[in-house]
Amino acid sequence: MDIQDVIRDQVTNNGVVLYMKGTPQFPQCGFSSTAVQILKGCGVREVLAVNVLTDPEIRQGIKEFSNWPTIPQLYVKGEFVGGSDIMREMYDSGELQQMLKDAGLAE
User: Fold this and answer.
1) Which of 27, 69, 75, 93 could bond 17 through an S-S bridge, CB–CB 3.0 to 4.6 Å?
2) Residue stretches of the annotated binding site
3) How many domains would you assign to the chain?
């Protein structure tokens, strides 16, 4: 499997996927930390968190997959949502919480 297939498999077989620097327990950048806090605030039950710092192929591959230059990146039900700035805007408006609830992925 090439890296694009691995990424496609991750985002299509998991409800919520966050490509981030570090882990939810130990984020390695402020933007990744913000993304984790937003998902917690939404009441997301399960997240596949992929630490891009441990795999350079994933780190570069996800940027090509989404055509988005920065990390973190959030996917919900296989669809690219955006980075921490977009997550913050959607959270502040209530749009992200509604999207996750509608998808059956949050309380």
Assistant:
1) 75
2) 29
3) 1
